[in-house]
């Protein structure tokens, strides 16, 4: 599937816009900058302020009381932005360096008591969450574009696991940030693609549960 096209907006991690991109846009943490260092924590993709706005606009902006699952925390910018907007956030990070950095940051910002950080792989956590009967209003999926699970792209594998689980609430949505070179299917398990937006080499695909 392909959605509406927009111009590219990703900044290189070491550009002059880097600190602005890592700044919380709005909410009770507005203006704070995440002290993420590619040299110390790994050179991962950083999502721009523009895409962050598109992600949260798709949820209505105000997330007060909503349960938000960030399956690929990375720098922590999406989970912290969701928390700043009032969501109850669970973030998942398998890389120990980034997990340690985020854990310290949550303590420094005094948000560790109401923002859950889990050190594991997303594909392992999804069945655990289902077993615990936990439900989320929104799930964000953004693994490294070249990551795989077996022979399958990791983002598609995670989407499939979500689609075959009951982790997502009936009125919830899954937002997948992925490479434009990967064409995700219109339906995955119990999920259907609601809309897509193209941003240069990146696509934001939004999935919602199929109606019974």
General description of the model:
By secondary structure, this protein is α/β, with parallel strands linked by helices. It has a single domain, classed as 3-Layer(aba) Sandwich (Rossmann fold). It has helices at residues 18-21, 38-41, 49-57, 77-84, 96-108, 122-131, 154-163, and strands at residues 4-6, 67-70, 88-92, 115-118, 136-141, 148-149, 152-153, 168-179, 187-188, 191-199, 202-209. The strands form two sheets. Strands 1, 2, 3, 4, 5, 8, 9, 10 and 11 form a nine-stranded mixed sheet that branches. A two-stranded antiparallel ribbon has the order 6-7. Helix 6 packs parallel to helix 7. It starts with a strand and ends with a strand.
Helix content: 25-40%
Shape: globular
Number of alpha- plus pi-helical segments = 7
Helix-strand pattern: EHHHEHEHEHEEEHEEEE
Q: Please state the CA-atom Rg, rounded to the nearest Å.
A: 16 Å
Query: Briefly, what CATH class?
Result: Alpha Beta
Percent strand equals: 25-35%
Alpha-beta content class: alpha/beta
Multimeric organization: single chain
Determine the mean pLDDT. Answer: 88
Count of strand segments: 11
Number of folding domains? Answer: 1
| CATH homology group | Vaccinia Virus protein VP39
Amino- and carboxy-terminal Cα gap = 23 Å
Low-confidence stretches: 4-16
The biggest sheet, with number of strands, parallel, antiparallel or mixed sense and barrel status, is: 9 strands, mixed
Which CATH architecture is right? 3-Layer(aba) Sandwich
CATH topology grouping: Rossmann fold
Concise overview:
With 212 residues, the chain is of the alpha/beta class.
């Amino acid at each position: 599937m392909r959605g509406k096209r927009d111009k590219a907006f990703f900044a290189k991690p070491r550009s002059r816009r880097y600190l602005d991109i890592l700044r919380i846009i709005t909410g009770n943490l507005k203006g704070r900058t995440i002290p993420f260092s590619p040299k110390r924590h790994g050179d991962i993709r950083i999502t721009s302020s523009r895409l962050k706005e598109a992600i949260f606009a798709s949820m209505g902006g105000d997330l007060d009381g909503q349960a938000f699952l960030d399956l690929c925390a990375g720098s922590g910018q999406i989970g912290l932005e969701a928390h700043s907007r009032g969501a109850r956030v669970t973030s998942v990070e398998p890389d120990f360096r980034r997990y340690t950095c985020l854990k310290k940051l949550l303590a420094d910002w005094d948000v560790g008591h109401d923002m859950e950080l889990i050190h594991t792989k997303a594909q392992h956590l999804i069945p655990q969450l289902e077993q615990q009967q936990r439900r989320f209003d929104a799930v964000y999926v953004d693994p490294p574009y070249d990551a795989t699970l077996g022979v399958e792209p990791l983002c598609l594998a995670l989407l499939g696991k979500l689609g075959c689980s009951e982790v997502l609430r009936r009125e919830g949505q899954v937002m997948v940030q992925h490479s434009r070179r990967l064409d995700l299917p219109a339906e995955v398990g119990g999920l259907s693609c609601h809309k897509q937006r193209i941003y240069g080499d990146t696509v934001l695909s939004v999935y919602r549960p199929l109606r019974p």
